[in-house]
Amino acid sequence: MLKHYNAYLKRNARTLRKNMTKAEVILWSIIRRKQICNVQFYRQKPLGKYIVDFYCPSRNLVIEIDGGHHYEDGEIIDDDLQREKFLRTELRLKVLRFTNDDICKNLTSVVDKIIEELGQ
Questions:
Q1: What are phi and psi of 95, to 5 degrees?
Q2: What is the CA radius of gyration of the chain?
Q3: Which 8-state DSSP code applies to residue 91?
Q4: Which residues pair with 52 in a beta bridge?
Q5: Which one-letter DSSP state was computed for residue 44?
Q6: Which of 10, 58, 108, 113 has its CA 20 to 30 A from that of 31?
Q7: 3-state secondary structure of 65
Q8: pLDDT of 27-82, one tens digit each?
Q9: What pTM, to 2 d.p., does this model score?
C-alpha cells in the first residue's frame, strides 16, 4: 500500500465511484479486470490528499479524466497543476491526462496511449 494513503478520503472516493461521469464509465469498462496489458487498475483511489480517477500501482500510473471545469481559457487550472506536481514529485507517479472529449470521441487513441505507457 502506498504510504501516502489518506483514510479520510475513503468515503468521498466511494461516493465518486457511485457517481462516475460518462467518460469515466466508458474508460473503466475498458481498463477494469486487467483487460489491458493484464494490469490492475483501481478507480477513484485516494492518494495523498487527492482522489485520482484511475490508479495502476504495479506501473505507478495515474489516469485523470478532465471535464470542462478543469480548464480555464484552454489551460489546465492551477489546482490540477498542483495536484499533478504532487503526484509526480512526491509520489513519483506517471500521470496521463485525457479530456472527456478524448474518451467519448477518440477512445481508440486513448487506449493506444495507455497501452504505450504500460509497455514502458
A1: -125, 125
A2: 14
A3: S
A4: 45
A5: E
A6: 10
A7: strand
A8: 999 999 999 999 999 999 999 889 999 999 999 999 999 875 544 555 556 788 89
A9: 0.86
Largest CA distance in the chain: 38
Classified as helix, coil or strand, 110 is helix
Q: Do the strands 61-66 and 71-72 form a parallel or antiparallel pair, or are they unpaired?
A: unpaired
Under DSSP, is residue 3 helix (H, G, I), strand (E, B) or coil? coil
Contacts of 88 (CB under 8 A, 6+ apart): 94, 95
Q: E-assigned strands of 1-120?
A: 42-47, 50-56, 61-66, 71-72, 75-76, 94-99
d(CA 102, CA 108): 9
**Whole-angstrom Cα distance, residue 46 to residue 100?**
21
- pLDDT score recorded for residue 6: 66
Nearest partner of 6 among 52, 67, 39, 41, judged by Cα: 52
Crossing angle (nearest 10°) for helices 22-31 and 107-119:
50
